[in-house]
């Protein structure tokens, strides 16, 4: 069955949804995006995603296509029209269509495209067995705090992981892990401290990261926001990643080194449970 997608004010069958070949998102990756999770037909952390979108747009001097309330209404309408109970809403704003030029065009309306992906997220094999990651150099640009659609570097990292028989890649810059290809990266040290990279323009400020760190602190876990190396990660007690679509996902192998007994650790498992439970309660 064809999905209903949203394009610039219209709800259309996906086959009829069109964007100009002159759209700057297509020509120059001049666009930003958000992915919001749907559980029980409701949106997880909508306000967090909307706030990050507003920040991304502001950093790029890009006009907002509509206000936050309208955005929420479109999210809900798409979820309802596509009868999504579990999955994602993808949202993309681009600077719009204009003659190709490096300078930003003036007076051009931004494009807004949104679609849903129905997907089983809670019942995940990786959550039970854990993921294997490899490290690769972080070759991305220096404004990773802006959630732009230029995703070729993370795609290449993901392909390197696949080629190595792993599930994902952790990105390394100046000898230290920044984040995963499409997620934030964490380790639990021998004394039980949860360590994840501090916020800066070197990483995306994950909405799931913010929630998970809050839940970890509330659960009495010591949290350190600082850089760590792959060497430190390889001898960690546990590791995991977070993102909107994976929640908290345990990592059991890094560059071939098995962590602990090779099974998902208790901190990752507990934080996954808390995150899912609390997110469900707060969903809108
Ligand atoms: N880091 C990167 C590079 C990402 O692409 C993502 C998600 O797409 C994240 C972190 C996790 O962010 P969030 O928790 O908001 O999904």
Automatic annotation (TrEMBL):
Pfam family, one: Aminotran_4
The reaction(s) this protein catalyses: L-isoleucine + 2-oxoglutarate = (S)-3-methyl-2-oxopentanoate + L-glutamate; L-leucine + 2-oxoglutarate = 4-methyl-2-oxopentanoate + L-glutamate; L-valine + 2-oxoglutarate = 3-methyl-2-oxobutanoate + L-glutamate
EC number: 2.6.1.42
InterPro entries in alphabetical order: Aminotrans_IV, Aminotrans_IV_CS, Aminotransferase-like, BCAT-like_C, BCAT-like_N, Class-IV_PLP-Dep_Aminotrnsfr
Gene Ontology biological process terms from the UniProt entry: amino acid biosynthetic process; branched-chain amino acid biosynthetic process
Keywords of this entry: Amino-acid biosynthesis, Aminotransferase, Branched-chain amino acid biosynthesis, Pyridoxal phosphate, Transferase
Enzyme class: transferase
GO molecular function: L-isoleucine-2-oxoglutarate transaminase activity; L-leucine-2-oxoglutarate transaminase activity; L-valine-2-oxoglutarate transaminase activity
CC cofactor: pyridoxal 5'-phosphate
Biochemical pathway: Amino-acid biosynthesis; L-valine biosynthesis; L-valine from pyruvate: step 4/4; Amino-acid biosynthesis; L-isoleucine biosynthesis; L-isoleucine from 2-oxobutanoate: step 4/4; Amino-acid biosynthesis; L-leucine biosynthesis; L-leucine from 3-methyl-2-oxobutanoate: step 4/4
CDD domains: D-AAT_like
Gene Ontology, cellular component aspect: cytosol
Superkingdom of origin: Bacteria
Keyword Metal-binding part of the UniProt annotation: no
Main function: Acts on leucine, isoleucine and valine.
PANTHER family per the UniProt record, alphabetical: AMINO-ACID AMINOTRANSFERASE, AMINODEOXYCHORISMATE LYASE
Annotated family: Belongs to the class-IV pyridoxal-phosphate-dependent aminotransferase family.
Protein name: Probable branched-chain-amino-acid aminotransferase
Organism: Oceanomicrobium pacificus
